[in-house]
Amino acid sequence: MALISMLYSKRHRQNGAALLFYEGIGDPWKRERLENMKFIHLADVHLGCIPDGKASWAKERGRELWETFRSTLDDADKMGADLVLIAGDLFHRTPDETQLREVNYLMGSHPKLCFVLMAGNHDCNSPSSAWDDFEFARNVAFLGNTRCECVRFPALKTEVYGFSYDRNEITAARYDHIHPDHNDYIHILLAHGGDAMHIPINPAALERSGFDYIALGHIHKMSEPVPDLVVYPGALSPIDAGDEGAHGYIAGEIFGESRLPGTDSAPAHGRRDAQGDGSTHRYGVHTRFVTKALREYVSLPVRVEEDDTVFAVRDRVEAQIHRRGRENIYRIILEGQRDPSINIDTTLIERCGMVLSVEDRTVPSFHIEELKERCKGQLIGRFIESFEGHERSMTEEKALQYGLEALLNASRD
Q1: Is 130:100 a contact under the CB 8 Å cutoff?
Q2: What is the DSSP code (8-state) at residue 27?
């Protein structure tokens, strides 16, 4: 179980990091020997965002982000987690006091959980922001400084290190030079970044850093640069069409020495860390990805045949959306050859479900050789011949098809 009652005070500095203590009250919370510590790691929730802003469902999607966050905290309670790690961009923009109060209420409603969060590039702790003077619930630690801080949970034998963005862009690779203190605590780094403009991430440097787990944020697709050690959970929910695939959070467990592999343990990824002094961590980590988002963005290619009518295409799109899930949001891509006499009504297709866009990549169907022979010596025949003598690219193929369509329409007029 996690801490219930806590005291919060800034004590001293170590390794250049301000050390914050969360002290358990009473001996029952002290752990002489750690068996395991359960955590949830999430990032990039983007509360306050209105995804798909011009779509009819946009406002409901904005509400979903809050509901998914609330439900994730319920999950943490149900799984008996000790710690919830929020690796930046909890909000879509720097929050105001009202938004902070809402989030603080949700976290404070789970007194058995400990929370550690930081500000990312979207919700940065800029000067005079609402982050500055906000008083969080007693089970919430905000690493709001621009210099590295450490929050210590003695009852969990865990230290969490990190700092907040104070601006939207930080180009220095600041995480390359952060190391934990040398003690027998579990060491976690809470970090946000991964591209040239937002703290470049060097997985090899993080693997050598001495941390038992690096909880990353910023990249919206789940990935593990170093499995069970350096982990991006991805965005909790997708917020734009580029966020395809499943979204959710990481559920993890860090095992004490008695639970490491080879000791009749549950599966764990044991780490032997070289800090340069030959020291060894006696903790193993096991993580799993939990799908949480209510819907996904899907790019859906749909094949169009030469004998299809507009309604036949529409029905095929609707059937495929039904198979993939009507809750998802689609970008429809029409491919193949269509009857030259029809134009596909994309507005009709947009009404098949939650369709963000329809891209018509179809080309009119012509029997090229037959047309060339029939129009030999004429403009159409010479136009076809100008594309011969080499393998046509996709662009040239479309140019040929659309050119023929224009020339044939002109000849009919």
Answers
A1: yes
A2: G
Q: Could you tell me how many residues make up the chain? A: 413
Ordered per-residue pLDDT tens for the chain, 413 residues: 333 333 344 444 455 566 665 544 223 344 455 578 999 999 999 999 999 988 999 999 999 999 999 999 999 999 999 999 999 999 999 999 999 999 999 999 999 999 999 999 999 999 999 999 899 999 999 999 999 999 999 989 999 999 999 999 999 999 999 999 989 899 999 999 999 999 999 999 999 999 999 999 999 999 999 999 999 999 999 999 999 999 999 999 998 754 444 444 444 444 444 344 434 456 899 999 999 999 999 999 999 998 999 999 999 999 999 999 999 999 999 998 888 788 899 999 999 999 999 999 887 787 788 788 888 888 988 998 899 888 888 888 888 878 887 887 676 55
Specify whether the CB–CB gap between 30 and 155 falls below 8 A.
yes
Q: Rounded to whole angstroms, how far apart are CA atoms 358 and 375?
A: 35
Amino acid 43 reads A
Burial 130-164 (b: 16+ CB within 10 A, else e): bbeebebbbbbbbbbbeebbbbbbbbbbbbbbbbb
Report how far residue 184's alpha carbon sits from residue 34's, in angstroms, rounded to the nearest whole number.
10
**In degrees rounded to 5, what are phi and psi of residue 188?**
-120, 135
Q: Alpha-carbon distance 303 to 301, whole Å?
A: 7
CA 179 to mean position of chain CA atoms:
26
Residue type at position 349 = I
> Residue 171: what are its φ and ψ, rounded to 5°?
-95, -15
Q: Which of 119, 143, 136, 135 is nearest to 17 (CA)?
A: 143
β-strands 158-162, 149-153: how paired? antiparallel
Helices and strands: H and E segment counts in the chain: 8, 19
Q: CA 248 → CA 108, 149, 289, 291, 295, distances in Å? A: 22, 27, 7, 4, 11
Question: pTM (2 decimals)?
Answer: 0.82
One-letter identity of residue 61:
R
C-alpha radius of gyration, the chain, whole number:
28
The residue among 216, 157, 187 whose CA lies nearest residue 285 is 187
262 Cβ partners below 8 Å, 6+ apart?
none
Give the number of other Cβ atoms within 10 Å of residue 381's Cβ.
Answer: 15
Residue 23 identity: E
At residue 230's C-alpha, the angle toward residues 159 and 224, to 5°, is 145
d(CA 277, CA 182): 10
Distance from C-alpha of 18 to C-alpha of 214, rounded to nearest angstrom: 19
